[in-house]
Amino acid sequence: MQRLQWSALDETQREAALRRPAQQTRADTAAAVSAILQRVRADGDDALRELGARYDGVALDDFAVGEDEFEAAQRELSPALRAAIDQAGRRIGAFHAAGMSAPYAWDSGDGVRCERVLRPIQRVGLYVPAGSAPLPSTALMLCMPARLAGCPEIALCTPPRRDGRADPAVLYAAASCGVRRVYKLGGAQAIAAMAFGTASVGKCDKLFGPGNAYVTEAKRQVALLEGGAAIDLPAGPSEVLVIADAGARAEFVAADLLSQAEHGPDSQVLLLSDDAALLDAVDACIAEQLRQLPRAETARAALAASRSIRVESVAAAMEVSNRYAPEHLILALRDARAWLPQVQAAGSVFLGDWAPEALGDYCSGTNHVLPTSGAARYAGGVNVASFQVAITVQEVQPRGIAAIGPCAVELATAEGLDAHRLAVALRLEQVAA
Q1: Which tens digits make up the pLDDT trace of 262-315?
Q2: Would you state the pLDDT for residue 23?
Q3: Which of 258, 264, 323, 336 qualifies as a FRET site for 60, CA 20 to 30 Å off?
Q4: Is 96 part of the annotated catalytic residue set?
Q5: Phi-psi region of 8 (alpha: psi -120 to 50; beta: other; left: phi over 0)
């Protein structure tokens, strides 16, 4: 990781220090993704087969996962892994159920009732990555809140393995949440299939899930195209920012940084500390732990675009963190909770030495589909409300329009919208008569 002294950087250098790797290749990525989307939109399943052979190394006649594959997946998994998936699913479900929005009604005047009702999004598409590593945890994070929201049509896409099958752990996780409409499709072409629909894959109203730079760009583009689909949030290459003080355990910090770096070469990790000795110790621990990691080369590629930054104080580190708006923020501080009110922009926060980000990835209960690329400034992570629409309702009695109608007439007159005024005034006349 490149070592920097924040106080020694000018504004241009600070912007460069916090620049994400995916942003540097965005023009090339956008052009490649646009071509894929156009191809799938024009040629449907034929394009999916060709692109699957090119990018996934397997050409499939049928993209849908059959019941025999679901049954085989359950048999292949060890009892311990099945139990872990089930246990994680229960925690995720319980946490999300506890935070569900509720409908409500309010009488804004005598004879005027206003309500807010919730309806599930009818057709949702979920994307579960499996390119560099299968992610059954992501299947839980998406399927569980979709099920709690009551979405009637749930489709899930995940890249096939070279043998033409989907990852068995992903299939088991999806099935454990009641989702059995699964397609073996990956990358930007999977996003295109769910956004536009093909003969095999139904068109979806909204798409969810993380992915690499190509998946994220595909989601961005389909959300802007006529006839495309809405998306949850920018959920691209993984990132973590750790703020550590002199009392932090260097081996813990190093492991937290590497846990994100091993996701992919386009991931990014940042370490901020006011203690130079801690930064040195973490560097040494990273070197030692890398020697033990099967995905060490992937992690090294991510570390090449990552930063170790010396700051003047924890307060200064919090300012840098809010500017960066990380997907994951770890506060490896002695008084971590005391600093929580200073967090203004982060997807998910982990307090203290004993809250590794990996727990949030798997089984603490919170969702790991989080905003990346700075989107934590204006968006939160996926939850049940992400799969619902809120509809407001007004019910007005004659005495109600008599009570609040004059207010509407006055405002409509001020705005020069006479038809608005007339729609209320005619009713007021009827009530008066």
Answers
A1: 988 989 999 999 999 999 999 999 999 999 999 999 999 999 999 999 999 999
A2: 62
A3: 264
A4: no
A5: alpha
Whether the CB-CB separation of 248 and 285 falls below 8 Å is answered with: no
Kind of pairing, strands 112-120 and 388-396? antiparallel
Tokens representing residue 223 in the block: 């959300």
**For residue 79, pLDDT beyond 90:** yes
Contact 159, 123 (CB under 8 A): no
Q: Which of 217, 239, 262, 327 is catalytic?
A: 327
Structure tokens at 329: 């923020």
Closest CA to 348 of 333, 362, 363, 369: 369
What pLDDT, on the 0 to 100 scale, is given for residue 232?
95
User: What residues have CB less than 8 Å from 302, skipping those under 6 apart?
Assistant: 260, 261, 262, 263, 264, 265, 266, 267, 268, 269
328 annotated active-site: yes
Candidate list 217, 328, 357, 368, residue with the active-site label: 328
Note if the pTM is more than 0.90.
Answer: yes
Q: Distance between alpha carbon 45 and the CA centroid of its chain, in Å?
A: 27
Burial 337-354 (b: 16+ CB within 10 A, else e): eebeeebebbbbbbbebe
Q: Checking phi first, is residue 225 left (phi over 0); if not, alpha (psi -120 to 50) or beta?
A: beta
